[in-house]
């Protein structure tokens, strides 16, 4: 089954065409083509993502990326039916720029061999989600292809399947990104229970905010991580101060990261001059505090649920220190650990294709009606 997948939930515009086969437990994905544009460079100068600015970028980049993905597919030119054209104009009413490009580059192309279109319907930034959803609906209308809405977090959960790394159930996923921090328990395929989540900031968001306090560029995670590594190699560590490990004593699986962030703010104020050495120490202590907290709650969950697989997903899963410690944890508890490849840990359309295929196979998906910023698993 040929699946076209579209992702626009935050600051990555991504399109992929995938040939999917196999069962829900052992699917097979053959990547035909994919294209991705990251808006990081743009948002870097503002220190974060502004939704309306991100929306404009998605509108500008989505169709060029889509055309790149479609390039080697057999298509012919044909004249667009005026009724269909009207319908598409209605769908893309709020995406004026997208409609202009759609009319110019897509409306006269005959249907390529695509069996289904899947698109992220949430969670994420609603203005940017709408770009992907409306584009998917317009394509579906033009070519009479079914369109399905996919949960972005399910994509992160199922990413290892892209590389034939199969999930044995029950499984637990630690999903850590700029927008989310969740522990998701899955007793059987496509059945999810969020057993813990952050009560305030997401872990990636905390990395980004602390990086900004230290005058480091966005996204802050890789920056802090590099400084923390350097501090470890130089054996530099905080001696007269430390940062809190929030919620570590609470009996649930929830997290909180805004306290550590505020603690760093006060620390910087109290320390006065922030030398390079102090920066290194703060980065190391911050990373220690965050990783310890994540590991502690994950370990508690491993002890409570009889797990066969532990999955780590989302942008923060690229963190080397987290990876090193989570590997130890999985080894101690003798459970299979699935870590995505670095490129697949951040937002992409391949993971949406995977979640889409499994959802279609199990007849779980519906056409996307709305952008759902707070969609939960
Ligand atoms: O999954 P993702 O690409 O986008 C969201 O859905 O948010 O995650 C981006 C987040 C950013 O906050 C970034 O700082 C963080 O992942 N990140 C890291 C690392 N690489 C990316 N955080 C810590 N260590 C890293 N090596
Ligand atoms: Zn994500």
Describe the structure.
The mean pLDDT is 95. The chain is globular. The two termini are 25 Å apart. The strands form two sheets. Strands 3-2-1-4-5 form a five-stranded mixed beta sheet, with helices on both faces. The protein has a five-stranded mixed beta sheet with strand order 8-7-6-9-10, sandwiched between helices. The protein has 377 residues and is α/β, with parallel strands linked by helices. The protein has helices spanning 40-44, 51-70, 82-91, 96-105, 126-143, 152-158, 203-213, 220-233, 258-271, 276-304, 320-332, 342-345, 350-361, and strands at 2-7, 12-22, 27-38, 116-122, 147-151, 171-176, 181-186, 193-197, 309-313, 336-338. The chain has 13 helices and ten strands. Helix 2 (51-70) packs parallel to helix 4 and helix 3 (82-91) packs antiparallel against helix 5.
């Amino acid at each position: 089954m040929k699946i076209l997948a579209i992702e626009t939930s935050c600051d990555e515009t991504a399109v992929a065409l995938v040939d999917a086969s196999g069962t829900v437990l052992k699917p097979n994905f053959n990547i035909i083509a994919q294209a991705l544009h990251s808006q990081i460079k743009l948002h870097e100068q503002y220190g974060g993502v502004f939704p309306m600015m991100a929306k404009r970028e998605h509108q500008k980049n989505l169709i060029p990326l889509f055309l790149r993905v479609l390039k080697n597919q057999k298509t012919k030119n044909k004249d667009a039916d005026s009724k269909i054209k009207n319908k598409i104009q209605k769908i893309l009413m709020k995406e004026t720029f997208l409609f202009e490009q759609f009319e110019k580059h897509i409306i006269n192309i005959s249907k390529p061999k695509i069996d289904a279109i899947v698109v992220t319907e949430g969670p994420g930034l609603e203005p940017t989600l709408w770009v992907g959803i409306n584009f998917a609906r317009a394509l579906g209308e033009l070519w009479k292809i079914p369109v399905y809405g996919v949960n972005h977090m399910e994509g992160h959960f199922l990413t290892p399947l892209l590389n034939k790394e199969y999930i044995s159930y029950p499984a637990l996923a630690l999903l850590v990104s700029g927008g989310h921090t969740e522990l998701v328990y899955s007793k059987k395929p496509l059945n999810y229970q969020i057993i813990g989540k952050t009560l305030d900031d997401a872990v990636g968001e905390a990395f980004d905010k602390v990086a900004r306090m230290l005058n480091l560029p966005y996204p802050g995670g890789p920056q802090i991580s590099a400084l923390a590594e350097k501090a470890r190699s130089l054996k530099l560590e905080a001696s007269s101060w430390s940062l809190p490990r929030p919620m570590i004593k609470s009996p649930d699986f929830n997290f909180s990261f805004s306290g550590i962030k505020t603690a760093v703010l006060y620390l910087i104020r109290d320390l006065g001059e922030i030398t390079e050495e102090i920066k290194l120490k703060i980065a190391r202590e911050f990373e220690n505090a965050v990783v310890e907290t994540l590991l502690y709650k994950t370990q508690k969950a491993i002890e409570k649920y009889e797990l066969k697989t532990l999955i780590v997903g989302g942008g923060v899963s690229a963190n080397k220190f987290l990876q090193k410690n989570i590997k130890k944890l999985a080894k101690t508890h003798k459970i299979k650990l699935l870590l995505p490849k670095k490129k697949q840990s951040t937002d992409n359309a391949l993971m949406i294709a995977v979640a889409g295929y499994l959802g279609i196979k199990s007849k779980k998906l519906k056409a996307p009606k709305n952008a759902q910023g707070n969609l939960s698993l």
